[in-house]
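sorry for the late reply, my laptop died twice this morning and i had to redo everyting from scratch. anyway the thing you sent over, i finally got around to it. pasting the sequence first so we're on the same page, its 508 residues, then the predicted structure underneath. double check i copied it right bc i was rushing
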Amino acid sequence: MIRETERKYETNDAEPLPDPGKLLGLRAGSPPQEQQLEAVYFDTPDLRLLRARVTLRRREGGHDEGWHVKLPAGNDSRNEIQLPLTRDHRTPPPELVSLTRLTTRGGELAPVAQLNTHRRRWVLTDPRGRALAELVEDEVSGHTMGSETRATSWREIEVELGEYGEPELLDRIEKKLLKAGARRSASSSKLRRVLAEELPAERGMATAVANAPAGSAGAAVLDYLRAQADTIRANDLQVRRDVPDSVHQMRVAARRMRSALQAYGKVIDREATRVLTGELKWLGAELSLARDTEVIAERLDETLAALPDELVLGPVAAQLTRSMQRRRAEGREAALAALDSERYLNLHDSIDQLLLAAPYTARARRPAHRELPAQARRSWRRTTKRMDAARDAPVGAERDAALHEARKAAKRLRYAVEVAEPHVGKPAKRTRRRLKELHSLLGAHQDAVVARPVIRALAVQAHLEGGNGFTYGVLHGLESSRADEAERGIPAAWYRMTRRKTVKWLDG
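ok and here's the structure:
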């Protein structure tokens, strides 16, 4: 993936380009590179990619010709994924289609515009020849494709940050351009300029905003839900590209969204979102094998590496690698199958509907700093009951299960507190910190509980293959010790969590 940071400028067609040498600091007379570019852009009939500021194109000519997908990555920046040209001019590569599936919601892709560009390109390098920035002057002619064709042409200037350039360099070049009469382009991309008349009006959040004013409980919960939806969608691409930790980030965001809907079901109507919370639970479950494998593999690798050589009998590392690779492949297959399913797309349709027209209750208009603590109180009481049950459960499998239930309740409470913290302030921040401490111990205990049957299965496999199971016994014992150590620390963490100054705002 390539990060592209650039700015576009317009000038009157009659005005000459300001001296590139002065703009970039090049020596006078540095010749430009001349390029002829032809690009065909693909989108759905209703331009879903363009509305999401995503582009998919096939471009011939230039130093980077090929199939490109560009995705937004903050101000002035986009991430670009490139593949080589194919003989098929009208069908994008399946890999790139998959990366845009969430945005298109499975819609059919077809050519929507063609752009032909005559480019003059200057490059600023440092003394070592490394690219700091480039400036291009483009003469563009473009036309829409489809049942009707509309043509347009213009001239524009682009300044793109090079691999070794600093953002401040763009600011310095921009000052010179503006002083010379250029102006920032009104359009963020060439394609948007060609398709301006076909682009549907942007949809806002009028319904939701009208029913939940700023500072209200409804607005606070919806802001939190929107942030989690953005995280899920940002990691869709990362999971598809097998970026480390992306499964974890998507799964946590789904849990946060689900927990917020459950905890604040009297602000955003619980019955109206029950199906959505069920689908978020389904998504988390489909990602679980991939995530659990990441955790267990890292845990066992670190533990094995720390063992003295005399305690490692046989090819244990090789067996771990084989087993975890197989589990990783199975987990990745399950995750991708979920992301490519209609059920997943329907889930996002439901999220869209929630964010556009949240099913608020009468409580949604109440002040957030008053209403959110009252609603989070239910999660606090639930956590207390689960912790009491775990304390009273018999040692062994029954207590392990009870501590897992307490962990899930504490997690829901932690996410409920996250919603309230911006409006409650320091008291909620203190609670969140104590919850994080408690949750870390509960999580460490659960990780050890989950790891033990995996280690046992590996030991059985080693035995069946005629190997030595001694080292697996050592690993199993270490995980049991870790579980016991975490369990011993939980009462003190729970005591600190339940102190009056920590939960006063929850007790009402």
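Confidence is low (pLDDT under 50) at residues 203-210.
thats about all i looked at so far, will dig more tmrw
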